[in-house]
Design goal:
CATH topology of the largest domain: OB fold (Dihydrolipoamide Acetyltransferase, E2P)
Order of helices and strands: EEEEEHEE
Number of strands: 7
Structural class: mainly beta
Oligomer: single chain
CATH architecture of the largest domain: Beta Barrel
CATH class of the largest domain: Mainly Beta
Helix content: under 10%
Number of domains: 2
Shape: elongated
């Protein structure tokens, strides 16, 4: 039902519970509709100031034969992953953003879980893992 209607999720409640405006209770539960998708890792940017102990991956996907910017993911990204990436040049014709981005060779693929939406954007993305057996 959530997929056909393009809903973000479903809220369920205990049949005997009451609604209390402005208060959260355990009687009401939200189930989010999530999806997984594979993306090409094109770069990363250090974040998590002031220590810089986190990184956001810059993601791309092929559309009509060209690598296009698809968004970023920070949640779930561990620093060890950055060691697997080989430095390169920006693979996009029009870079999506400026900053302290370290561009990588677009040769690694990762899976990201996100909330589908009508904006064609990565909403609440979570890094799930990197693929070693996928060719770009």
């Amino acid at each position: 039902m959530t997929v056909e209607r393009e809903l973000e999720g479903v809220v369920a409640k205990k049949a005997s519970s009451l609604y209390h405006p402005g208060k959260r209770t355990k009687d009401w539960v939200k189930f989010k509709r999530m999806a997984d998708k594979d993306f090409v890792i094109c770069g990363y940017e250090h974040c998590g100031y002031p220590q810089g102990n986190m990184a956001s991956l810059i993601l791309g996907e092929y559309r009509e034969g060209q690598l296009q910017y698809a968004g970023t993911v920070t949640m779930g990204v561990r620093r060890e992953i950055l060691r697997l990436l080989k430095k390169g040049n920006c693979p996009f014709v029009n870079p999506p953003k400026e900053g302290n981005i370290v561009w990588c060779r677009p040769e690694r693929v990762c899976t990201v879980e996100y909330m589908p939406n009508t904006l064609d954007a990565l909403r609440q993305p979570v890094f799930k893992g990197i693929w070693d057996d996928v060719e770009v």
